[in-house]
Design goal:
Helices cover about 80% and strands about 0% of the residues. It comes from Paenibacillus montanisoli.
Length: about 150
């Protein structure tokens, strides 16, 4: 437990706040602007309509997502700290941005593909939904890497 508190004490919480909000902005742009029509059609079965969620439901979703974004940012920050420190222990260059990028892609694949591909396998969504969600996560985690790398 002491190690967890030590790792959490090293987190740049300013960067967590920024990346949490930027994740939400990026998600809005990615799914509601850039990929709006095909994503809404394939994800929800419609482009837009009268049975759209209420304002209260949208606000609740916004709050839940921003909290999850903050948790994701904190977890990524800790993983990045461990990756940098591991360079000394395991003999790789922990200060290499290129190495950190590939580490980030490995994390992204390992932690997001089960959820994004699960939409196809278990919820029977289209491969377009999988592609939009997966590409969003790749861009989001790259953004997290760059912000934490250069802000820390």
């Amino acid at each position: 437990m002491r190690v967890l508190f030590m790792l959490l004490s090293e987190v740049n919480y300013g960067a967590v706040a920024v990346t949490g909000v930027l994740s939400l902005v990026l998600g809005f742009l990615w799914m509601a602007v850039i990929w709006k029509k095909p994503y809404q059609r394939d994800m929800y079965g419609k482009v837009a309509g009268p049975d759209e969620p209420s304002k209260a439901t949208k606000i609740q979703s916004f709050i839940i997502y921003i909290l999850v974004s903050f948790i994701t940012s904190i977890a990524f920050s800790v993983c990045l700290q461990l990756w940098k420190a591991g360079g000394q222990a395991f003999g790789y260059d922990g200060d290499s941005l290129a190495g950190a990028f590939w580490f980030t892609m490995l994390l992204t694949a390992g932690y997001t593909l089960p959820f994004t591909v699960g939409k196809k396998v278990w919820q029977f969504k289209s491969w377009l939904v999988v592609a939009v969600d997966t590409s969003y996560e790749v861009v989001r985690f790259t953004m997290l890497l760059l912000i934490f790398w250069f802000w820390s």
